[in-house]
Write a structure and sequence with these properties.
Number of domains: 1
Strand order of the largest sheet: 1-2-3-6-4-5
Radius of gyration: 14 Å
CATH superfamily: RutC-like
CATH topology: 60s Ribosomal Protein L30, Chain: A
Helix content: 10-25%
Order of helices and strands: EEEHEHEE
Strand content: 25-35%
Largest sheet: 6 strands, mixed
Oligomer: single chain
Number of helices: 2
Shape: globular
Length: 127
């Protein structure tokens, strides 16, 4: 595919597996799932689910910016939580990073996530 571009930025955590931070084809950008890792140190952020969610959305925002967009360009967001009791707190954090109209979204509870974190979020942007 000649119009496929890999998006990478040092302002978000490096991939911890065989994947890219994001891939852009035409005006669509697929952002890989982000967990609450601090760019540079690759350490999990300290704190409760709100602190973890804030770091995740900061990471996603950095990748979105590197792709030439923003989180307000999101058309779909997928959230994985290890405990759906965190749903309201994550909604509050997400709302602080996006403006209405909000993108389509799914939120599911999963058994476990990489590095023992409580949240992972991925997004699709149309820019």
């Amino acid at each position: 595919m000649s119009n496929r571009a890999v998006i990478s930025t040092p302002d978000a955590p490096e991939a911890i597996g065989p994947y890219s931070q994001a891939v852009k084809v035409g005006n669509t950008v697929w952002l890989s799932g982000q967990i609450p890792l601090i760019p540079g140190s690759m350490e999990v952020v300290n704190g409760d689910i709100s602190a973890q969610a804030k770091q995740v959305f900061e990471n996603l925002a950095a990748v979105a910016a590197a792709a030439g967009g923003s989180l307000n360009s999101a058309v779909k967001i997928n959230i994985s939580l290890t405990d759906l009791a965190h749903f309201a707190a994550v909604n509050e954090v997400m709302a602080s990073f996006l403006q209405e109209p909000y993108p389509a979204r799914a939120c599911v509870q999963v058994a476990a996530l990489p590095k023992g974190v409580d949240i992972e979020v991925e997004a699709i942007l149309a820019i």
